[in-house]
Design brief:
By secondary structure, the chain is mainly alpha-helical. It has one domain: dinb family like domain (Four Helix Bundle (Hemerythrin (Met), subunit A)). It has 5 helices and 2 strands; from the N terminus they run αααββαα. Keywords: Metal-binding. It holds the Pfam family DinB.
Length: 149
């Protein structure tokens, strides 16, 4: 449980660092904002599913607006923090059933979902950094080891 919680502390830290960097750059790179919005939308979808609510109408890809991203960064952190507050080690094996936006039903353990969300975001934050470097902007250091320092 401590490991997964630490992963989410890192996730929240990394999201905040990416957001602050994207806000500060003058280059209005639509694809970078779209990727960041996707990370945040996916987090919202997964926490909705973990809480037993219907996520099928939530967008996975949407137009990225700074204000919406700012709200999702805050909201997702609060929701996952609350979720972890009430989560016991034995809950990690609990199976979550959900229906995706295409109407297909899936079942995964809480552990698998939490691991997926953490890795999914890191993958896309890497894509964001790659795109930043391509336009001459220093990538954001979101390495886990930097976080634990």
């Amino acid at each position: 449980m401590k490991t997964i919680q630490k992963m989410y502390e890192h996730l929240n830290w990394a999201n905040q660092r990416i957001f602050e960097t994207l806000q500060s750059i003058e280059d209005d790179n639509h694809e970078v904002w779209r990727l960041f919005s996707h990370i945040l939308n996916a987090e919202k979808i997964w926490i909705t599913r973990l809480c037993g609510r219907d996520s099928s109408q939530l967008p996975i890809w949407s137009e990225a607006e700074i204000e919406i991203c700012a709200e999702l960064v805050k909201q997702n952190e609060e929701c996952f923090t609350a979720f972890f507050t009430n989560l016991a080690n034995t809950d990690l094996d609990k199976i979550i059933s959900y229906t995706n936006s295409k109407g297909r039903e899936f079942k995964y353990s809480v552990w698998d979902i939490l691991t997926h969300v953490a890795l999914h975001g890191q993958y896309h934050r890497g894509q964001i950094n790659s795109r930043l470097r391509a336009v001459g902007i220093e990538p954001v250091n979101i390495d886990f080891i930097t976080f634990v320092r």
